[in-house]
Amino acid sequence: MVTGATGTVGRDVAKLLSKKGAPVRAGVRDQAKARKQFGPEIALATFDFEDDSSFAGALDGVGKVFLLPPLLPNQVEVTNAFVDAARRAGVRCIVKLSAIGVDGEIQFTVGKWHAANEQHIRKSGLAFTFLRPNSFMQNFITYFPPRDGAIYLPWGNGTASFVDTRNIASVAAEVMTSHGHEEKIYTLTGPAALGIADVARILSEAAGREFKYVDVPEEAARDGMLQAGVPKWQADALMELHAINKQNRWSAVTSDIEKVTGNPPTDFAQFARNHADKFRAS
Question: Rounded to 5 degrees, what are φ and ψ at 131?
């Protein structure tokens, strides 16, 4: 079973599992809407993290779960309840999408949530694999795309080893269909650490139009999110992540993607070329 199946990562996990010949069930809130994203070979089950009555049916007969926690203020509570339901339903293994840095000395809200869920899974007795990705390259399409020729972020000169979500999905699909990954933790990064000015330059080359990086003051970034209707708890959590990246704390590069899949991680230039049409329209 794949949770978060209509999102950027989950959708690719479900499709890759199906390609590998694994029987897959996608847990979705709206089956009619989700069916447009998936072929007939992927079964759909009505599932909602905030409705625990949906857990048993979605988990019936499932041996392994790809757990992509929802971004909710009660994330720990609902995700841990789902883990308990999975154990009762006879699930043997959970592959959890976590986050980079959750076991480091830097304390951040989303990291604490993931760490608490990881700990709950460890105590559950289920087999597990934790995937801890860095910031997604796809965030430059979904969360902070260029606007009016500029990328606005409060990162200063900070860098990060951005990772392509397609690589994350490849690792998840491999882990779920092969042996030897139990109790492993994989930190998933791209092949290089980049600053936002680097990102703007690479996107400019791919799109054939110029983008620049505007380093936004942190208070202005927070105010902008709040004015756009982002809940305060979420804006606060995002600002913590931005501050960590501004400090250059998540710029390390790992070889875990290649170790698991046999293929090197996608570099940002390739990602930009693959999605150039989206950036031409930005």
Answer: -105, 120
Q: What is each CA distance from 253 to 105, 190, 215, 232, in whole angstroms?
A: 18, 7, 24, 32
pLDDT in tens, 150-201: 999 999 999 999 999 999 999 999 999 999 999 999 999 999 999 999 999 9
C-alpha 277/C-alpha 172 separation (Å) is: 27
Q: What is the pLDDT of residue 148?
A: 93
Whole-number Å distance between alpha carbons of 76 and 81 = 8
Question: How far is 7 from 143, CA to CA, in rounded Å?
Answer: 13
CA atoms within 13 A on the CB side of 268: 27
The model's pLDDT over 66-105, given as tens digits with 9 standing for 90+, comes to 999 999 999 999 999 999 999 999 999 999 999 999 998 8
The answer to whether the beta carbons of residues 168 and 87 sit under 8 Å apart is no
Is residue 266 a contact partner of residue 190, using CB atoms and an 8 Å limit? Answer: yes
Are 56 and 89 in contact by the 8 Å Cβ rule? The answer is yes
The whole-chain average pLDDT of the chain stands at 96
Task: State residue 39's pLDDT score.
Answer: 80
> Considering the entire predicted model, what is its pTM?
0.97
Does residue 101 come out as left (phi exceeding 0), alpha (psi in the -120 to 50 range) or beta? left
